[in-house]
């Protein structure tokens, strides 16, 4: 049983990771500034509020809990905002992560699991991406995550820091027990927005562009269930504990769905219409982001079990009936 420092543990993916870590016998220590996270979502271990940019606070937390490893989720993650306010992304995601990595090394905590993204790949003509696909991000969000990947490599060479980097595709769904779920304010992600539109909580969904080079003209994404995704993190931690060294893993299912297909599936799963209209492209969006997870399957033994689109929509839908956090 070891303490694991989970930055962003009050957020969507981080809170699900805390639940999975607890189930695996670890103590997840959440470090979160609560800017986009929710204290109500911290249910599985201790909570320490703080900024990634506050080195003294980080040192204090490393000293108090002596974590065996760090799982670093805390980040800004909206493509639209990254296009209009890139400085925020470089300062927070890169500056904050650098500070955290330096604090971890200073504390002798050398196992590091990092949330990266398929947005680091950028536009690649209709190919299924793998970990060796060149990383040419289209927006400051992807660029900031790629920069942190580079920092981790440099810190391995200099200080022996070992990292497991997960490049996520589109994370969706919620804890089937309903203890935690996805709740962003403002919400910008397709599936929760669609659920809000169905429930009449917003006027309707705008489909961002129907003139992409895809069969129905809308963007294609690879959706993965949050519970499957965090299970991979527990396996990644074990990988590091076993001394297997640094590695990068894509986490996707290999199946892509267009925005229109997601709308169709939502209509079928919820048995309700999805009010939507067609709008302009959103700046920074790639046409298609789809990956297999061959490496994660072969090397980590990761097998997604809930990542069908219908299951993700059904779990998100169920959570949304009751699941809200209060500030
Ligand atoms: N999308 C959309 N309308 C919305 C939000 C998203 O058409 O209101 C599209 C977006 O352009 C992308 C896909 O849905 O093609 C998934 O977007 P999301 O923001 O959920 O995740 P991202 O791919 O940016 O990580």
TrEMBL record:
GO terms for molecular function: UDP-glucose 4-epimerase activity. It comes from the Bacteria. GO terms for biological process: galactose catabolic process via UDP-galactose, Leloir pathway. Its EC number is 5.1.3.2. Its cofactor is NAD(+). Pathway: Carbohydrate metabolism; galactose metabolism. Residues 4-252 form the NAD-dependent epimerase/dehydratase domain. CDD domains: UDP_G4E_1_SDR_e (cd05247). Keywords: Carbohydrate metabolism, Isomerase, NAD. It catalyses: UDP-alpha-D-glucose = UDP-alpha-D-galactose. Gene3D superfamilies: NAD(P)-binding Rossmann-like Domain (3.40.50.720), UDP-galactose 4-epimerase, domain 1 (3.90.25.10). Homodimer. Belongs to the NAD(P)-dependent epimerase/dehydratase family. NCBIfam families: galE. PANTHER family: UDP-ARABINOSE 4-EPIMERASE 1 (PTHR43725:SF53), UDP-GLUCOSE 4-EPIMERASE (PTHR43725). This is UDP-glucose 4-epimerase. It comes from Tritonibacter horizontis.
């Amino acid at each position: 049983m070891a303490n694991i420092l989970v930055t962003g543990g009050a957020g969507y993916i981080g809170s699900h990771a805390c639940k999975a870590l607890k189930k695996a016998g670890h103590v997840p220590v959440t470090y979160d500034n609560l800017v986009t996270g929710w204290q109500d979502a911290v249910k599985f271990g201790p909570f320490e509020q703080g900024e990634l940019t506050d080195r003294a606070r980080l040192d204090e937390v490393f000293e108090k809990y002596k974590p065996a490893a760090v799982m670093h989720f805390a980040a800004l993650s909206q493509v639209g905002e990254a296009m209009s306010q890139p400085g925020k992304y470089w300062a927070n995601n890169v500056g904050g992560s650098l500070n955290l990595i330096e604090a971890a090394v200073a504390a002798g905590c050398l196992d590091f699991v990092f949330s990266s993204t398929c947005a680091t790949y950028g536009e690649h003509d209709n190919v299924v991406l793998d970990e060796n696909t060149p990383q040419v991000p289209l927006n400051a969000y992807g660029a900031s995550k790629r920069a942190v990947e580079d920092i981790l490599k440099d810190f391995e060479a200099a200080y022996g820091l070992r990292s497991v980097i997960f490049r996520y595709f589109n994370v969706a769904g919620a804890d089937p027990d309903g203890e935690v779920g996805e709740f962003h304010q403002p919400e910008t992600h397709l599936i929760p927005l669609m659920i809000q539109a169905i429930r009449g909580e917003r006027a309707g969904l705008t489909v961002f562009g129907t003139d992409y080079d895809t069969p129905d003209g809308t963007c294609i994404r690879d959706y993965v269930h949050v519970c499957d995704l965090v299970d991979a993190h527990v396996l990644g931690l074990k990988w590091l504990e076993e001394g297997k060294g640094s590695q990068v893993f894509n986490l996707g299912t290999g199946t892509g769905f267009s925005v229109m297909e997601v709308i169709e599936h939502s209509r079928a799963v919820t048995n309700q219409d999805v009010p939507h209209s067609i709008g302009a492209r959103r700046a920074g969006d790639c046409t298609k982001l789809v990956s297999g997870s061959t490496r994660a399957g072969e090397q980590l033994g990761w097998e997604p079990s809930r990542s069908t689109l219908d299951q993700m929509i059904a779990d998100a839908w169920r959570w949304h009936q009751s699941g809200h956090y209060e500030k």
